[in-house]
Amino acid sequence: MTLAELLISSLITIAITAAVLGLADPAQHVFQAQQEASDVQQRLRVSVDSIQKDLVMAGAGTYAGPAAGPLNDFIAPVFPYQAFGDNPDPSGGTFFRNDTISFLYVPSTASQSTLASPLPPGALDLQLDAPPNCATPTINQLCGLGAGDRLLIFDQRSQWDVFSVDQVGLGGAVLQHRGAPSAADFRAGAIAAHVRLGTYHLKSDDAAMVYQLMRHDGWTTDLPVVDDVVALRFQYFGDPEPPRRTVTALDDPAGPWTTYGPPPPPIDDIRGNWPAGENCAFLVVDRDHVPRLGTLVGGGLASVELTPAMLTDGPWCPDGLAPNRFDADLFRVRKIRVTLRVQSALASLRGPAGVLFLKGGTARTGYRYVPDLEVQFDVTPRNMNLDR
Amino acid sequence: MSPKRREPSILRGSSWLRDERGVALIITLLTMMLLSALGLALTLTTSTEMRVSSAYAGSAEVFYAADAAFERSTQDLLLIPDWNLVLGGVVRSSLVDGVPGPRQRPDGSVLDLQRETDRLNCGGATCGPWGANNPRWQLFAHAPLADVSPAQAINSRIYVVVWVGDDATENDGQPLVDGDTTAGPNPGEGLIQLLVHAYGPGPTRREVEGTLKRQDARMRVLSWREVRQ
After folding, report:
1. Beta partners for A379?
2. Which residues of chain A neighbour B215 with C-beta distances below 8 Å?
3. pTM metric for this prediction
4. Cβ separation of A108 and B67 shorter than 8 Å?
5. Could you tell me if A316 and A326 are in contact, meaning their C-beta atoms sit under 8 angstroms apart?
6. Which helix (H) or strand (E) holds A14?
7. B2 pLDDT above the threshold of 80
8. How many angstroms away from the CA of B150 is the closest CA of chain A?
9. Chain A contact for B130, CB < 8 A?
10. Hey, of B17, B223, B226, B228, which one would you mutate to test binding to chain A, going by the most A CBs within 10 A of its CB?
11. Count of A-B CB contacts under 8 Å
């Protein structure tokens, strides 16, 4: 083989190789983009599943004892803001964030009881009654509650707070509370139950380019659930009818005393800062309980959207002075609409910011685009729709 | 006479080095291997994605099946005036596909209803923190989800099983009797628990449980809970 033959054959080989690589390169990019598209879909699924499993349970209340029933017979089980932890939003006067939701529910648990003695503001010594569903107390557990378990205490006055069991002793327990000391004044008979709680919110840091779906455990820990979630929005839909009294007398222990929401006190009783016989959901007119909230127009039998203005204008439960007060319209919530948007983790697979991409990337050709995926889904918390 | 051309040193030697027959086959085989590897990788990615999305869709379907069985059982319980017959296993829902025993799950595996009931009841021994008041689970409904609708409007291979049990707040020590008040007030009177398992293809299973209360000829669902391990 001569040198000329070698050079010519090399040139031909290089030319063919270059042509093949020219064809293969876009194919490789498309292949890489498809793998990322699968990853985006999977992260979307995880986000939806995580939020759905908590919100569908929101509002599950105690199912043992005299006050058995959903939480929204007493308190709001979902809050459109960070409701727990060291610095809850209400302490700063914030009562609505469209990218945040907090929830409460009582899981399957035997730990459901009532306070055997009052728990005044700031107090942390817990004494519980021993109903039949509670296991026999030991030095390690009180009605099944052990150190580290979260405890929800609430009452018919719509007072509520979340504690953690710090230590258990024979016949009692010592609690912990995050943030400012609890301001609630619980009387003996207030309901105490093991609780699951948390807050989903969006972490969006443009400087660090960090976008995450976060879950706060309601105590101290805030952990990312899914990366590259660039948009999160919650909308609330509720019962157009306000809470109304049922025919059940207020002194009948069986209830239910209202269609939903907290029962009012007897006509002449004063509860909190409300006039005699009234609470955040009921007024007294001509010595009769009537709804304090109005009927929402446009709903008919269907649920209507509860706007941010409706959820931040009061009336407040348990009253306008309580640190963890909430808007009484939150009792209406029946459906939560969640909008989620997930982007490609690789900037090289995102094009310029626009319709396809909320946060721009560096891709300049269409075959390298992995567009953002956005999904909208409704969650109907079952326990907030039990009278359907 | 032209001088004899010298061959490059690499081609001098044995004759097989100069024999190029079969090179095309080798190049073709190498190319096919490369393309096959690419195709295999693509197929693997696609099939994995399909399996993941299929499992996700199946899991959601099984969840709604469990919820549907819960609703159906709630309605059936409302029509039974004496819950002691239910707790004793004498009366069951109309959603029953024969005597309890082995059933074939959608993936072909066998679900033994009696064995599953025994497992919930810890093999007949009492389990749970309530001693003599521990619920004794009884089969109440068991059938393919398609049987929930008499018109066969549901096209599904999911199998649902519903158990009932006495409420944990009872104090009568009789898990087969609802709220015996002979010895005094019983906080569990009129309360019953439902436990629903829905079985989908593969290992997919979703559980829902709830507590029901009969009050003034109405049924109140006091609590609905999805159980996740």
Report:
1. A336
2. 254
3. 0.86
4. no
5. yes
6. helix A3-55
7. no
8. 23
9. yes
10. B223
11. 85
pLDDT band at A382 (very low <50, low <70, confident <90, very high): very high
Which of helix, strand or coil describes residue A215?
strand
Contact A108 B225 (CB under 8 A): yes
- Put simply, the answer to whether B129 touches A144 (Cβ < 8 Å) is yes
Residue A196 is predicted with a pLDDT of 95
| Residue in A276, A204, A226, A218 with CA at minimum distance from that of residue A81 | A218
B171 touches chain A (CB under 8 A): yes
Q: Is the Cβ pair A108, B209 closer than 8 Å?
A: yes
Q: Given its phi and psi angles, is residue A270 left (phi above 0), alpha (psi -120 to 50 degrees) or beta?
A: beta
Q: Report the alpha-carbon distance of residue A162 to residue A102 in Å, rounded.
A: 13
The model's confidence at residue A289, banded by pLDDT at 50, 70 and 90, is very high
Phi-psi sector, A72: left (phi>0), alpha (psi -120 to 50), beta = alpha
Distance (Å, whole) CA B86 – CA B167: 13
Lowest mean pLDDT among A350-364, B69-83, B120-134: B120-134
With CB atoms and an 8 Å threshold, state whether A45 touches B52.
yes
Q: Is A216 exposed, middle or buried (0-12, 13-18, 19+ CB in 10 A)?
A: buried
First to last CA, chain A: 90
d(CA A352, CA A367): 14
Q: What is the ipTM of this complex?
A: 0.84
Q: For A81-139, what is each residue's pLDDT tens digit? A: 999 999 999 999 999 999 999 999 999 888 899 999 999 999 999 999 888 778 788 88
Q: Across all residues in chain B, what is the average pLDDT?
A: 82
Put simply, the answer to whether B224 touches A386 (Cβ < 8 Å) is yes
